[in-house]
TrEMBL record:
Residues 659-668 have a biased composition (Acidic residues). Pfam families: CRAL_TRIO (PF00650), CRAL_TRIO_N (PF03765). SUPFAM superfamilies: CRAL/TRIO domain, CRAL/TRIO N-terminal domain. It comes from Clunio marinus. PANTHER family: ALPHA-TOCOPHEROL TRANSFER PROTEIN-LIKE, ALPHA-TOCOPHEROL TRANSFER PROTEIN-RELATED. Residues 86-244, 418-580 form the CRAL-TRIO domain. This is CLUMA_CG006993, isoform A.
Amino acid sequence: MPEVHTQQMLNDNMITEEEKAQKIEELRKTIEECPSLNIRTDDIYLKRFLICCNWNVADALTRITKLFKLKFENPKWFSNKKLTDYRDILKHNAKIMLHGRDKKGRRVYLSRMLGAGNLNLMDLAQLDDLWMEAMLNEVETIENGIVVLLDMNGYSWKMMKWLAPGNVKVASTKADLLPVKHMEVHVVNSSSLMNAAVSLVFPILSQSIKDQVYFHYQNFPSLHEHLGREVLPAEYGGLNENLKFDELANYLFKHEDHLNKSIIYGYTSEPTKAIKEKKKTHSKGKENRLKKEEMKSNKSSKSNSPSKSPRHIISRSFLIDPHAEFEAELNRNLDMTWREKAEKELNENNEAITKMKQMRKLIAESDISQKGREDEAFLLRFLRAKKFDVDKAFKMIQKYYWMKEHSPELFYVSPPSDLKSMLEMQIQCMLPQKDNHGRQVYVFRVEKCDPYKVPVEHVFRSNVLALEDAIRDPETQIGGLVVLLDMAGLGFAHARYLSPHLAKRTVEVVQEAFPMRFKAFHILHEPFYMDAILSVLKPFLKDKIRRRIHCHGNDLNSLYKHIPRDCLPSEYGGTQPPFDNSIWRQRILNNEEYFIRLESYNDEGMINNNSFDIYHHKKSSINDEIGDEEIFYEAEDDADDNKSLDVEIDGNSINYIDTETEDSEEYESDRVLSPKRKAPPVETLEEMFLKHEFSTFTLEEKEFDAVKT
């Protein structure tokens, strides 16, 4: 997209024809005196650049030079063959210019994903180059601009590979340098996969491109407001007949001589040096690039920028997957407050790169590299969760993949659409507002969870899904998570969710397998037998986690001591709107391809079963007994946990607070697993139910009757 120039600008209405002719001649002489540029110098061609640069000769020359340097460095992104060699590619009907112009006099260029599936990215880029060259040979198009109509119908996971950072950078730069003063992109028929793609690409795009992109989904009247209906075919709600691609493609062949000549033009300055430098860069390999990254990090320690910054921990060497690059970009752009917090609380300091390399070495010597992601953004989750203790982080990632392989009925989160009906029940949500310590707050409401409609496995999987979504945010990795469990409405039928097997799996997620810093668990409206339920968990819990469990009953004021009202929904006396997970839910569903990709790295077994045959065709069962083949690591209390600090943000001031003290000593009375408070033994659970006129022996009969009615 064209850049906006704020100085020395001249509007077309403010410059005479004579002055325009003088500037065209001035630019022509400048180019002829420049030995590095072998390009056209006719009036129409030069006018492209002068108009988009508001008749500023210097800016026009700069744009020309940058564009042809880009072509020299990336020749496959530009047309480089005779037009007849593109005849077969044109038959895919992926790119076409519509007849006529829109209501603002602009050409409309249609790009269809449905026809692009069997082409490679370079073919499509070269088709774009051909069409743009043809359209920009028209004075009316140069003056009025171009509209790109991007039809995402047919966009598939296969095309996600096109979004590699290097590709996005070249495409974005090319779009910025095109000599088009007015260009807009209108996107129609987008999907959840498209939304995921946009979330990956947008952070890398220039602001000028972002400002000119419009999303219409299937709302064609919205599209008509910008383009009008006269230029559009019937399939887009227009007044013209359906597309006739052969007729439209003839436009290119009318300009065949001109297009064939255009491939000879280019930038010729110091080609030998450029090629030599390029080869030298590629010959270094991964190891030398890592050394270079570490040297940069060491240099940065002498500057004002914190050496532990994720900008230095996250290199670009291993970032192939677009999802990994998206998360790496979040880390690179992490605010200074969070970097300081990571250093003070998680030991994310000068040794971070060394720890990352140690982690990589352990993974390379294990079978993990065959199971899933091993990019730096992903590994950083585990290092942060274990305060950069490499051995503990490695054990956690081993356990993470072991759980996915051996308990897929609980840990297999893709595709999220399988859980859509449950998510729509408004059972759970990551609240949009973090607490005053910067921690994410996750709410789960038992009352909304119908035990006759929601399988036990779905409840567990939905919680793992919520964690997998939240952990992508580096702020959550650093700040941690607070869980608010509202047990209002807990009935006897919910007992199926409380088996020893699920209890143990839950504890394993919290303590051993998932790279989240669980800072506190707050329970509201717990029943009279809650102590007995928690006593089931107690044997498996580390003391650190025990000290973070708080029961508040119906006392909301007790809850406010830990979670401020300004981040809670109104149902809990908070100042936020009523509980509504629609935005959070839709974000997860829109990113379905991310979760599928997350579990499709493995070459064998459940994790790589893209057809989901094993999960869907095999009846899942949950055993209360733990198999002998399970591997468990000894529960080790982190020796430095009492040094954990949290950050309280009050206006612009930042105060570090000892959260271990906050969660364990100050409000001792609400902690049911505190050493100072004894919970009733588990053996009394049945007695308590009988006392309150519940019968454990009629559970199956009641469930059958309820389902039948």
